[in-house]
Amino acid sequence: MEHSQPQQLSLGVALADDATFENFYTQEGSAAAQAVHALQHFMQSPTEHGFFLWGASGSGLSHLLQASCHLANQQQLSAQYLPLSELVGFAPDALLEGMDGFDLLCLDGLQHIAGKADWEQALFNCFNRSKDSGRKILFSANANPTELNINLPDLASRLSWGLSFQVPLMGDAEKQQALTLRAKARGLELSDEVAQFILHRAPRHIAELFEILDRLDNASLAEQRKLTIPFVKQVLGL
């Protein structure tokens, strides 16, 4: 059965171009790698409709939800990413109306609507419509489904139906490798010495580390200089 294409909701929500599965570093065999592999399988499965990712801030959940949207678009499927931290002030019935028409709906940060009766009911209804029409819905939160303090029993039950995986925070060695790989993808040469210098003096949140790498990339291009410790000190004001 052909799916009609829904109208894109104009929310000013844009996907990050570099939020891809290829840009998400995991060590083979780690819990994060298992979560990513399961998510990619979910994206390909014609029978699985619900998937729940959870982890602490900085574990890369937003990246993975946006990567899933990019993958869906590459497969000529419709996808919508909704960061609930930015949208919790909207009327949920109006916001979620028609969202079940997307082949993939990604709801990021479920903890922001937990305990809000109107949101819980609207999300429960949207989940049912998505499942009944054979679409996929992907959730993320800072806790697993049983610890989210969802008050609506039916919604709490639905969230536990599908696959659920934790994405742990990266250790320092993983962050360093992720920085090095992100730099390489940008055509930057980042030595181990410089990567360790950045890691030990910059914020530990991986998203903030990537923002610092963006600054260094722009400065390196502007001044035509390699990434050395003196140059990093200059750019970051250390």
UniProtKB/TrEMBL annotation:
Organism: Pseudoteredinibacter isoporae
InterPro entries, A to Z: Chromosome_initiator_DnaA-like, DnaA_dom, Hda, Hda_lid, P-loop_NTPase
Transmembrane segments: none
Domain of life: Bacteria
Gene3D superfamilies attached to this UniProt entry: 1.10.8.60, P-loop containing nucleotide triphosphate hydrolases
Record NCBIfam families: DnaA_homol_Hda
Keywords noted in UniProt: DNA replication
Similarity-based family: Belongs to the DnaA family.
One GO biological process term: DNA replication initiation
Domain annotation Hda lid: ranges: 172-236
Protein name (Swiss-Prot/TrEMBL): DnaA family protein
Domain annotation Chromosomal replication initiator protein DnaA ATPAse: ranges: 17-164
